[in-house]
Amino acid sequence: GISEIKGNKKPMGKSKTKKNQVAIYVSNNTDLKTVSDWLRIAKSTANTINMNGETESFDYIDAEKATTELKSYAPSMDHDIAMYKGNPDYEWAFDKFYYGDVGDDAKGSVLIIFQDHETAAGVYKAFVCGATFTVTSMDAVSGVVNVSITFNGDPIFGVVSGSGTPTFTEAPAKPTIVCSN
After folding, report:
1. What is the distance between the alpha carbons of residues 127 and 113, in angstroms, rounded to a whole number?
2. Which of 63, 81, 98, 114 is found 20 to 30 A from 48 (Cα to Cα)?
3. How confident is the model at residue 181 (pLDDT cuts 50, 70, 90)?
């Protein structure tokens, strides 16, 4: 059945996803099928995936107003990574900043793990995608390096298992949802 939310009460058996349950990992490896050196973005103050929907308007003759169609998404995210010397995520971001990585050196992979969507014990929904890492700023006063992660190409959907370094397994084709009357 469908639960109803009244006032500030939570539906029975439901809980809100916590920020640490959407885990972001990066790698400088661009071969999505062989990445094993995942590095978790842990000391960031943001965890927002911007979908950046790309739309197109059509002015059909059978309607007075134009119709907007959603063509695709171009996901990206910005991370303000805290400047804690020795933390792996900061050292990774610092190297991107210091060396001014461009072209192929600015490319890699991103892995998103949804730890609030467990498919079996210790197995979570996830996807991996090519990425471009752009350092937008280093703010020593605020103590952050901002890295923009732009997703490239089509994501590969699957699951992640294991603790420590994640192990990604590609899922079979996306299931078809059949609606019946």
Report:
1. 7
2. 98
3. very low
